[in-house]
UniProtKB/TrEMBL annotation:
Species of provenance: Actinomadura soli
Biological function: NDH-1 shuttles electrons from NADH, via FMN and iron-sulfur (Fe-S) centers, to quinones in the respiratory chain. The immediate electron acceptor for the enzyme in this species is believed to be a menaquinone. Couples the redox reaction to proton translocation (for every two electrons transferred, four hydrogen ions are translocated across the cytoplasmic membrane), and thus conserves the redox energy in a proton gradient.
A GO term for molecular function: NADH dehydrogenase (quinone) (non-electrogenic) activity
GN (gene name): nuoN
Protein name: NADH-quinone oxidoreductase subunit N
A Gene Ontology biological process term: ATP synthesis coupled electron transport
EC top class named in words: translocase
First-listed, main subcellular location of the protein, grouped into a coarse class: membrane
Transmembrane feature ranges: 6-26, 38-57, 84-104, 116-133, 139-157, 169-190, 215-239, 251-275, 281-300, 307-324, 336-361, 387-411, 423-443
Compartments it resides in: Cell membrane; Endomembrane system; Membrane
Domain NADH:quinone oxidoreductase/Mrp antiporter transmembrane: 134-437
Enzyme Commission designation: 7.1.1.-
Amino acid sequence: MIQSIDYAALAPPLILAVAAIGLLLADAFDASRRVLSLLSGGALAAALIAVVALAFGDRRDTLCLPDGLRGNGPRSCSYVADDFTLLFQGIVLGAAVVVVLLSLQEITDSKMPVGEYHFLLLAAVIGALTLVAARDLVLLLVALETLSLPVFALVALRRYDGTASEAALKLFLVSVVSTAVMLFGISLVYGATGAMHLDRIAPALSRLPSDLDPVATAGSVLVLAGFAFKVAAVPFHFWAPDVYQGSPLPVAAFLSVVSKAAGFAGLAIVLALGLPAYAHVWGPVIAVIAALTMTVGNLVALRQRTAIRLLAWSSVAQSGYMLAPLSVGDDRLPEAVAATTAYVALYAVMNLGAFAVVIGFRRRTAPLSASWDALDDYRGLARRSPAVATALAFFLICLAGLPPGVMGLFAKVVVFRATVAGGVTWLAVVMAINTAIGLYYYLVWAVRLFTPASGPSYDPAPGLPVRAAITATATAALVLSAAPQIVLQTVTQAT
């Protein structure tokens, strides 16, 4: 009954776990902010190197059922480091490195405890890395909570800011409810199938007695609802705008990209590996949620006059596009998962870039303007700082899906094609209409950058780390716009 553990497969989260403990010890001995930040960024880079090394090897799995518990079934493992896992771990770690760069000046400006900040950030990343590798419902839930719990503290880490405390409380209450809903759904699935590993749940559901069908149906829908909370899908989205606005901006970027990517990875894993037999149940539910999410997100974004709330509602709308391919059900599920994964990867670059520019812009204007992130504050930015304005305009065009932002157009074409191929034509029509709506508010913001300012103007003065983040995301966006097939080929192979 003693299990052998493949520590190589667990290397990325283990590296971060050791680094997180080292951070706390170094902070206890009054290490400088620069040392702690370098340790955090270095640990993320080391974990990313470990992911790349694993990608050149064979599939690995660990934490498997002992021989005596397998019976005649397949090798059931809780943690699997396959191509899909490594792809999402790479996305998560790459985005986390950018978040660390964006955090360096924010920690100083907001007077946040640097040791606690980086410890909590690494703990949340550990949860995300484990979530995308989990292959049983218990580990999925534990990883999801390991991702969520540190984020509550990160949001509230500006201890004397009432807005941050309010945002953290809202996020905490919503997350507790979503966890309870998901846990109840997991208990129903376990009660119907007698299994927790996804590769055992799937065959059990395919031959489930008819009297247990309502139990499994309710469990599947509740598990889906739990993930819908995490990815801010309508009607479980109401926490996102206030939390984005109240939290430190790098934390908002983390929620918008890293947390969302991990949530979609977990959702795809559960649907594709555990619940394909009930695609006729969750497919139509996801289609309705996707349509509502993109429509509500885009319509409310039209009314926003501040950058952060616009990005928040934009993020809600983008979740709808990511959900759309998964509505096709079991017939074309591999293609649907590939489309969603490609969109998540491309969205991470676009959205992180937009957040990087907003964070750099905020540093100069925050002391001078009560509404430091008002869209009108960006008027004339192209004249005062052409490079920053050009980068932001390009990120917005990518998010809108317009040339020359080919990566954004490519992302929308991929999910649109997967949705049409799956037979959910009405959802593809809704997606096309919403894409047209989204063009308006992205272009309105982009046009302001090149419009002369009517009042006092402020020049962005981003520090070196923020400039590095802007440069890195802009370079990635340019490369992926020139050769978007890189993402699709990588994702297709991984899924």
